[in-house]
Specification:
This protein is an alpha/beta fold. The chain has a single domain (about 15-230, about 290-320), classed as NADP-dependent oxidoreductase domain (TIM Barrel). The protein has helices at about 45-55, 75-85, 115-130, 145-160, 175-185, 205, 210-215, 260-275, 280-290, 305-310, 320-330, and strands at about 15-20, 25, 30, 60, 95-100, 135-140, 165-170, 190-195, 220-225, 295-300. The strands form 2 sheets. It has an 8-stranded parallel beta barrel with strand order 3-4-5-6-7-8-9-10, surrounded by 4 helices. The protein is globular. The relative contact order is 0.13. The structure holds NADP nicotinamide-adenine-dinucleotide phosphate. NADP nicotinamide-adenine-dinucleotide phosphate binds near residues 170, 194, 225 and 301.
Length: about 325
């Protein structure tokens, strides 16, 4: 394996945005390791994706205890790549992990107890060969644990040096507001709510999430911005390509790719083409038009996909009213 030499021009084109009112900045595009970095993924493909990202100014890599498959495998893989290729660049990286979804057997393997969060963070640090993570998230709200306990556990991770900042994920505005109030009282540096948001999934708008938490100093990072691949050119002909997500996970199912969905995707693609973009590029640009969004968190199963998506950042043409109305007409049903 050739020794990695980082691209000298890696910071020349990327734009970095602030996370809420914190001092932390993230690249407009971040890379997540949910389903493409598990134990069955190819070593050379994973390495290429990660290093291509870093070479293009993507400094933020997002993980969670349960990413794989199997759970834990993505953190182990990240740890190997980090030790081999990125160790000397640790201070250039923002690495996040999370706890909250089912990770190990018994009552402490999931949700939001102090016991789960602190043990899970310790496990993640070991798997990734890190001394600390930059952001540690609570992955989902827990209806059976006092939110003060969960936030207290996150604050403990910061005071014990295991995390620099904390975040929440999949929190609705009312829960997020409570979390922010507690974190503020605890003096704990909070940065982000990580939420699912794309042209095809607009709950963030319906629930006024950004309007609710941005004024309180918390930023928003959007996951599944391409609706797990629907908002790309891969399903435009109505078939499911070999190796694509519906062929190996249950998170995007073949039954979701109906003729009606494909028809919508084709019409969205026509708008993208009129903007000189591919569908995935337009989907990314559409989220970034809101300057309060700190970063768009994509997944990629190849270097080529990542490179195509990075080009979204080159097209700074704003959306005109006609394009926005047409996108709304096609997607808000
Ligand atoms: N907090 C949470 O609860 C939560 C939940 C989910 C995700 N996340 C985070 O968000 C990250 C991104 O989520 P996601 O993977 O669902 O995001 P996504 O960007 O919506 O989907 C990624 C998938 O889209 C396809 N794709 C991407 N670029 C493409 C291109 N140019 N052409 C064709 N296909 C393309 C690939 O599918 P194929 O694999 O089929 O090639 C890729 O695996 C995750 O890795 C994770 O870090 C967080």
């Amino acid at each position: 394996m050739k020794n990695y030499q980082a691209n000298d021009t890696r910071y020349s084109t990327m734009t970095y945005r602030k996370c809420g009112t914190s001092g932390l900045k993230l690249p407009e595009l971040s890379l997540g390791m949910w389903l493409n970095f598990g134990s069955e993924a190819q070593d050379d493909v994973c390495r290429e994706i990660l290093l291509t990202a870093f070479d293009n100014g993507i400094t933020h890599f997002d993980l969670a205890n349960n990413y794989g498959p199997p759970p834990g495998a993505a953190e182990i893989r990240f740890g190997q790549l980090f030790r081999n290729d990125l160790y000397n660049h640790r201070d250039e990286l923002v690495i996040s992990s999370k706890a909250g979804y089912s990770m190990w057997a018994g009552p402490y393997g999931e949700w939001g107890s102090r016991k789960h969060i602190i043990a899970s963070c310790d496990q993640s640090l070991k798997r990734m060969s890190l001394e600390y993570v930059d952001i540690f998230y609570h992955h989902r709200p827990d209806p059976n644990t006092p939110i003060a306990e969960t936030m207290g556990a996150l604050a403990h991770l910061v005071s014990s040096g295991k995390a620099l900042y904390v975040g929440i994920s999949n929190y609705h505005p009312t829960e997020a507001i409570k979390a922010i109030q507690i974190l503020r009282e605890l003096g704990c540096p909070f940065v982000l709510d990580q939420v699912r948001y794309s042209m095809l999934d607009r709950w963030v708008e319906r629930e006024a999430l950004v309007d609710s938490i941005y004024p309180l100093g918390m930023g928003v990072i959007c996951f599944s911005p391409l609706a797990q691949g629907l908002l790309t050119n891969k399903y435009l002909n109505g078939t499911v390509p070999e190796g694509s997500r519906p062929t190996h996970t249950q998170f995007l199912r073949k039954e979701q790719i109906t003729p009606e969905v494909v028809n919508t995707l084709r019409q969205l693609d026509a708008i993208a083409e009129s903007r000189g973009q591919t569908l995935s590029q337009m989907a990314i640009s559409w989220l970034l038009k809101d300057e309060r969004i700190s970063s768009v968190l994509i997944g990629a199963s190849s270097k080529e996909q990542l490179i195509e998506n990075l080009k979204a950042l080159e097209n700074r043409e704003s959306f005109n009213d006609g394009q926005l109305q047409e996108i709304d007409r096609l997607t808000l049903q």
